[in-house]
Design brief:
With 971 residues, this protein is α/β, with parallel strands linked by helices. 21% of the residues lie in helices and 17% in strands. A hairpin with a 4-residue loop joins strand 5 (402-411) and strand 6. Helix 1 packs across helix 6 and helix 12 runs parallel beside helix 14 (684-694).
């Protein structure tokens, strides 16, 4: 950008210094000395390759870090609400700026951490630090040519920063408020503020109190460079190096002529002042002339700190006053030069100049001393004449060449010769303005992505922002029609279009996902690749549920006791809180005897106090009981339950009568009715009988997964709650015509590795009270598997996220290791997870509210790894080197596995739930009869059967639906 920043002389002392810089790329930076000073203080840092990258844009979080470090501000306060997109290294610095109301971010949750900082926002941050608030309003405005482009919220801030001489515009006095700030710009401004110290705030206060900017300001403590740079905070667009040597004439001091406090210039009075009986006092009007000639100062001349007193002699600094008309004291000279562009038409107007200094302060030559000052410019190439004009343009080197320039200034009285040297870098011709719609850079409009467990991949997209050569955002309507973007992601999380391809590969919170964005437009002739990254942040988790059914069984001395009931619930409440609900599933023998009335009374108290559920528990009803026996057992259960739990409703001789249920189906007693069946295997007719007679439409147990009684087996849905088929509970209904109206769900979903899905692996459900775990009591394998449910990457896709379990608390009391395992499982269950404990029917209602009355919207996916535990028998194991992906919906169940080191996943099960007709589940006591619902690649009957083309396509479609695109072996 011609004229911006390139006007600063690299060498502002008498001898230029280029070697031994702290960074390898700041030799030609106008801010090199400031960068080194700030680096020495630890306020700025470079990169591992030794570079500083001075012309790279600075992000908001990088600027916040420099800002806070320079002002020695830091904070680590957990009470401060932090932004989600701030990197950990920048967090303490952003926190303090947020707490001190210096910045508020771009929203309640986003700081815009990696967005580029703009010039006007830099001014606003510092102005807030210096005392400007939202209520601060000044009648004055900045003097910049483009001050009307400054946003309203930044007007006062820019005005203040200009008056404090912390920022300036380009050589044409344009500020460019909305352009981006480079790292060298930011460092230089921070350096100035750092040098200014606490005095800045006092000066700012006086300026703000003056209201119109008329207040006197003090000059900032001078930089190590006597010549103050023209600060350009706009982006460096061109690839050519910045010219650090040259500066526009008269730009070092904004006031080339000394300030005149009076219409008449002050001159020394040749006659001494006449003594006055009253001592003179400082006059707020024009100051008393000082014997010394006035010098340029940011402040208008003020009265001498010591008021004049009656004296026969004029006030002079020395006993012998010098000849004021010819004496001129300075101690340094600096060459000033405009940007020299290798462009002949600019040569006639080109002019070198210089600036004199005394003790680091700029000094102008008084009119009386002009004739006593002579100067001579010279250069080794013979380009300039003695007055600094171009005399031999043919000697000007090519672009990026240098001209060693020397200056000698002679002052007659007192005699003094000052010399200065510099190297003037020649710049190439300014290229014509580029079409503002041409893309030169691309950025992401977001810098974060939620962790997989909280991410809805269908709603997430990768938004882009395109900038032109000036760093301006290109409106979407101005983008080329042939624009093509392609994402290169070695982590395989994103596809080429920037969509989520492998949801489960998104790493943990605070991880960074790096990738590249390839941009191409043939019409604009552009093709470049830009680096990008996304930081993984926590998101809003979907609610998770844990369905608990506690069995109550036995009578007499073997019955579940009141203390066991109380202890079981108290253990859950101690960890999950009192607002949980469980199912108390009671078997016939338990409700049959009046000695168990205290236990029943306790259960009813929990129903009243917490909303717990009553349920029916029956062992293997399909195998043991034909329908008439089943009807008799259920009638007996309800009759005896009413007799011992609600004796006031008892009517003798009514067993099997509808009146038993009807007496309880009232507003007062309905809450005590059984709501669910906890069982193992149940026949469709048995389930239908409970629905017709007791309005029970919830069933939990192995009835929802497989038959394994007397070697009978079948396979259903171990993971997903579903409305069952009216002819077969292990098959999801495909529509209203085959919907039983009963929801089935599995009882223990803690390690759902299927029977012999993979060689050497068998189904072993890691029950927290499993007696086959030897004497282990730490519950580590169960907690390991449960954690995988809680951190399942597919949570946002699932209809409902749940685990469920059936507990035999009476058996726990008999086996110490079982009781300890369950207790440790509860006590060490992750406390940072929002998990709601519910009963069996409560889970059904949650599922129904999400899925409706059919399975059309039902789906469940889970990725997990085996626990690595083997049972003492050696026949059941859960290999730790195997990963599984289990996914299903109403149409099919698909199970993939992958052993560590394998290149691709294997399909180990495909079950087609849409197959017709569905085999009707009979009453069957013949253990040799297989009642499995066999389709596709069944793990029992056809474990290696080839899949058809249609089945392979269905697998591919399903995997795409759940955002899984890793390599799969389809045969």
């Amino acid at each position: 950008m011609t004229g911006l920043l390139a006007v600063w002389l690299f060498c502002i002392h008498t001898v230029p210094v280029f070697a031994d810089r702290a960074f390898n790329d700041i030799e030609h930076s106008y801010a090199a000395d400031a960068i080194e000073a700030m680096a020495a203080q630890g306020y700025v840092t470079g990169y591992q390759d030794g570079s500083f990258r001075p012309v790279q844009f600075i992000s908001r979080q990088e600027w916040a870090t420099i800002f806070a470090k320079t002002l020695k501000r830091t904070l680590n306060d957990k009470d401060v609400i932090t932004f989600r997109d701030v990197s950990p290294w920048a967090l303490p610095y952003v926190q303090i700026l947020q707490k001190e109301n210096i910045t508020k971010g771009i929203s309640d949750q986003l700081f815009g951490a990696k967005q580029n900082m703009t010039r006007q926002d830099m001014a606003v941050w510092y102005a807030r630090y210096l005392g400007v608030s939202e209520d601060t309003r000044s009648a004055s405005i900045s003097s910049f040519v483009d001050q009307f482009d400054i946003s309203d919220y930044a007007q006062t801030s820019v005005w203040l920063m200009e008056r404090l001489e912390l920022i300036e515009g380009d050589t044409n006095h344009y500020f460019y408020p909305k352009k981006f700030v480079t790292r060298q710009d930011a460092t230089l401004v921070a350096y100035r503020v750092w040098l200014g110290g606490d005095d800045l705030r006092e000066r700012a206060k006086r300026l703000l109190e003056s209201g119109n900017g008329a207040g006197t300001t003090n000059q900032l403590p001078s930089l190590p460079e006597p010549d103050k740079p023209v600060v350009d905070l706009s982006p460096e667009i061109r690839p050519q190096p910045v010219n650090p040597e040259i500066e526009e004439p008269e730009r070092h001091s904004s006031k080339p002529e000394p300030p005149v406090p009076d219409p008449k210039p002050p001159v020394p009075d040749p006659k001494p002042p006449v003594p006055d009986p009253k001592p003179p006092v400082p006059d707020p009007k024009p100051p008393v002339p000082d014997p010394k000639p006035p010098v340029p100062d940011p402040k208008p001349p003020v009265p001498d700190p010591k008021p004049p007193v009656p004296d026969p002699k004029p006030p002079v600094p020395d006993p012998k006053p010098p000849d004021h008309s010819s004496d001129f004291v300075v101690d340094e000279v600096v060459i000033k030069a405009p940007e020299l562009i290798n462009q002949p038409e600019t040569y006639p107007s080109y002019q070198l100049s210089f600036q004199l200094y005394k003790e680091g302060q700029p000094v102008s030559i008084p009119a009386a001393s002009v004739t006593s000052v002579t100067y001579t410019f010279s250069d080794a190439l013979g380009v300039f004449d003695k007055q600094g004009k171009i005399a031999h343009s043919e000697n000007i080197p090519a672009a990026d060449g240098t001209i060693p320039v020397e200056l000698e200034v002679t002052i007659a009285k007192p005699y003094r010769v000052l010399k200065a040297q510099t190297k003037l870098i020649v710049k190439g011709m300014t290229p014509p303005p580029e079409d503002p719609s041409v893309i030169r850079s691309v950025y992401l409009a977001t810098y974060t992505i939620s962790q997989a467990t909280t991410l809805d991949p269908a709603a997430w997209s990768m938004p882009y922002v395109f900038h032109n050569a000036k760093g301006e955002v290109i409106p979407p309507g101005s983008l080329p029609s042939d624009l093509k973007l392609r994402i290169e992601d070695s982590s395989e999380i994103f596809d080429e279009d920037g969509h989520i391809a492998n949801l489960h590969l998104i790493p943990a919170v605070n991880s960074v996902i790096p990738f590249k964005i390839e941009v191409e437009s043939p019409s604009q002739g552009i093709h470049f690749i830009s680096d990008a990254e996304l930081t993984v942040v926590p998101g809003e988790r979907k609610k998770q549920y844990f369905a608990v059914s506690i069995m109550l069984q036995g009578q007499g001395g073997s019955a579940t006791t009141v203390d066991q009931i109380k202890q079981a619930r108290q253990l859950l409440m101690d960890h999950f809180g009192p607002n949980l609900k469980v199912t108390w599933a009671m078997e016939n023998s338990f409700v049959f005897v009046d000695t168990n009335r205290p236990q029943l009374k306790q259960v009813l108290a929990y129903v009243d106090q917490y909303g717990d559920e009553v349920g029916i528990m029956d062992g293997y009803p399909n195998n043991l009981h034909k329908l008439p026996i089943w009807e008799a057992r259920m009638s007996e259960w309800l009759y005896m339950y009413r007799y011992n739990a609600l004796n006031e409703l008892h009517q003798g001789g009514t067993m099997g009568s509808p009146s038993v249920f009807e007496s309880m189906d009232t507003d007062q007693y309905r809450k005590y009715l059984p709501k669910s069946l906890t069982s193992f295997t149940v026949n469709p007719e048995q389930a239908q009988w409970l629905k017709d007679h007791y309005k029970i439409t919830s069933a939990m147990g192995w009835s929802a997964t497989q038959y394994n009684v007397n070697n009978m087996f079948g396979e259903g849905s171990p993971l997903m709650p579903y409305w069952s088929n009216k002819d077969n509970p292990i098959v999801p209904a495909q529509g209203l015509t085959d919907n039983s109206g009963i929801v089935f769900m599995n009882s223990v979903t803690i390690d759902p590795i299927g029977s012999r899905y993979t060689e050497g692996s068998s189904r072993w459900t890691l029950h927290p009270g499993d007696p086959n775990l030897n004497e282990k009591t730490d519950a580590a394998p169960q907690l390991y598997i449960a954690q995988q449910y809680l951190d399942n990457p597919y949570q946002r896709l699932n209809t409902v996220n749940y685990m469920s379990i059936i507990l035999d608390i009476n058996s726990f009391a008999q086996k110490h290791n079982m009781a300890q395992i369950w207790e440790n499982f509860v006590k060490h269950f992750p406390a940072d997870r929002e998990v709601e404990i519910v009963g069996v029917d409560g889970l059904k209602q949650i599922y129904q509210s999400s899925a409706g009355s059919n399975n059309d919207r039902s789906e469940f996916s889970l990725m997990f790894r085996g626990s690595g535990i083997e049972t003492p028998t050696g026949s059941n194991n859960s290999p730790a080197n195997l990963r599984y992906l289990w996914t299903e919906n109403a149409s099919q169940r698909i199970i993939l596995s992958k052993e560590d080191g394998d290149a691709a996943w294997s399909i180990i099960d495909f079950t087609d739930y849409t197959r017709s007709p569905v085999p009707k589940l009979p009453y069957n006591l013949d253990k040799n009869t297989d009642v499995s619902y066999v389709t596709g690649r069944n793990f029992k009957l056809n474990p290696t059967a080839p899949l058809t083309a249609d089945e392979i396509q269905r697998v591919k479609d399903r995997l795409k639906e759940i955002y899984f695109a890793e390599e799969v072996k389809y045969q």
